[in-house]
Amino acid sequence: MGSVDDVAPLVVFLASDKSGGITGQTIALGGDRLALWSYPEEAAVAFSDGGWDAGSIGEEFRSRFEKMPQPYGITLPQAPLAGEEVIG
To answer: Considering the entire predicted model, what is its pTM?
Structure first.
């Protein structure tokens, strides 16, 4: 678990325009570790000596995590097409 000081740069990054494409991600940040989770495990992890700031978080998302969008919400069943038999 990260401290308030660890998490503050992530909040700044998420409030910025640079995070506009991030939806539904679970992000872990503590000390020098920044991780993207795809439950039940990390999908990617990066380390930064001395911790993270909002700019370095943005750079890491652009270079590595942005290529790994995570699903969000509930997957709903598809409605049957017209004339299709409904079973169940």
So the answer is: 0.52
